[in-house]
Design brief:
mainly alpha
Length: about 80
């Protein structure tokens, strides 16, 4: 699925944007309880963004490795055929 079709919470960048919104809201609220909730929410968005970054990096690394391996397989197949 392309990034354009993903919900903001399904991308690292979207999670970081949601984190920033929660941090701004936390700093603007006079209510200590609500501020704590929003700060925890912002921390959760940050953790999710880091997780998604790691998953994407691993996926990209495996995809690059697979691309490197594919031409070699095709060449061997042509030599044997």
């Amino acid at each position: 699925m392309s990034s354009a079709k993903r919900k903001p919470e399904d991308t690292a960048g979207g999670c970081r944007a949601l984190e920033q919104v929660d941090r701004l809201r936390a700093s603007a609220t006079p209510n200590a309880h609500m501020r704590e909730i929003l700060q925890r929410s912002a921390d959760a968005w940050n953790a999710r963004a880091e997780l998604l970054d790691g998953l994407e990096a691993g996926f990209n690394e495996r995809a690059a490795e697979n691309l490197e391996l594919q031409p070699g397989r095709r060449m061997r197949g042509k030599q044997n055929g």
